[in-house]
Design brief:
2 copies of one chain form a homodimer. The first copy, chain A, is mainly alpha-helical. Helix content of chain A is 57%, strand content 6%. The first copy, chain A, is built from 7 helices and 2 strands. In chain A, helix 2 (31-38) packs across helix 3 (42-54). Residues 127-138 of chain A have low confidence and may be disordered. Chain A binds chain B through residues 1-2, 4-6, 8-9, 12-13, 16, 38, 79, 93-103, 105-106, 109, 113, 118, 121-122, 129, 132-133, 136-138, and chain B through 1-2, 4-6, 8-9, 12-13, 16, 38, 79, 93-103, 105-106, 109, 113, 118, 121, 132-133, 136-138. The structure holds a DNA duplex (30 and 30 nucleotides).
DNA sequence: TGAAATGGGACCGGGAAGGTCCTATTATCA
DNA sequence: TGATAATAGGACCTTCCCGGTCCCATTTCA
């Protein structure tokens, strides 16, 4: 239902990475580059990035030196934005009397957490986050 | 992954109901009774109740006048307890670098919400919560 | 002994998660 | 202008698990 799926995780990994690049004022990053950085399945990541771009979170540039970059400030992108962008369908079951009300709070919780926050946090928790991401495998 | 599933919703509905009964010092309620109260699929609810009892959240009494009742105080039962009780398997994907850390916070969030809290809240939000639960259908 | 309840399973169908692949379009570089 | 590198937009496949049912054994009370 809320679906904190693995696809959502890929989306967050990519978004945080792009946020870091944006902070460094670097250009767009290609899907291939991101996939190699974190050892993610390329074909799937491409779909995820498409979805994020479609949702307006990323700006895409075609062509040789193209790729994806954050479309807005990292502070303006909430975790909920990212999760919902990759969540397809979403009839979001109207029935579910108790969880239905709970979901509102959970969404609020995810809405107040921003990609900028995740990036900051990742940088604090030891600088080797990138390494740990890589060795986390998959 | 965290799976806020419909089964979890049934579990919460039942748990809140049993918490209300416990507050009124009434005896155990049978699966059939709960299913009819909220118009839930009986066979499935039975499984859910079994799982809740297995997790130690409910105490069960067999036999004619038997049924289920809350095993401990409603304040001592967190939403996370209930959700996890009906979540089977749960390899809980070790990979998921970003969501992995997020999940910790979400769990904390769910852990601090108790069944007693849900009951209180339900009673406040108009007394017709029970009715709205029933007419919510399915 | 029979009815009403839980205990402990196995079992199944459909949908979505996870993943691949193909073709078009756009942009850069030589 | 042609090759190359990228995204855009799909269709497609497979595996897992959610939602759900059913069965049989056991316990309890009348």
């Amino acid at each position: 239902m809320l679906s904190l799926t693995r696809k959502a995780d890929y989306a967050l990994v990519a978004t945080v990475y792009l946020a870091r690049r944006r902070a460094a004022a670097e250009g767009p990053a290609s899907a291939r580059e991101i996939a190699e950085q974190f050892d993610l399945p390329l074909a799937l990541l491409m779909n995820v990035l498409k979805q994020l771009a479609g949702a307006g979170l990323l700006r895409s540039t075609r062509g040789v030196a193209g790729g994806y970059e954050l479309a807005v400030a990292a502070e303006a992108v909430s975790v909920l934005d990212v999760v919902e962008a990759v969540a397809e369908g979403e009839a979001d079951a109207p029935d579910a009397p108790v969880l239905g009300r709970l979901r509102g709070r959970l969404n609020g919780f995810l809405r107040q957490m921003t990609v900028a926050g995740l990036l900051r946090e990742a940088d604090e928790t030891g600088g080797e986050t990138v390494v740990s991401l890589r060795t986390a495998g998959r």
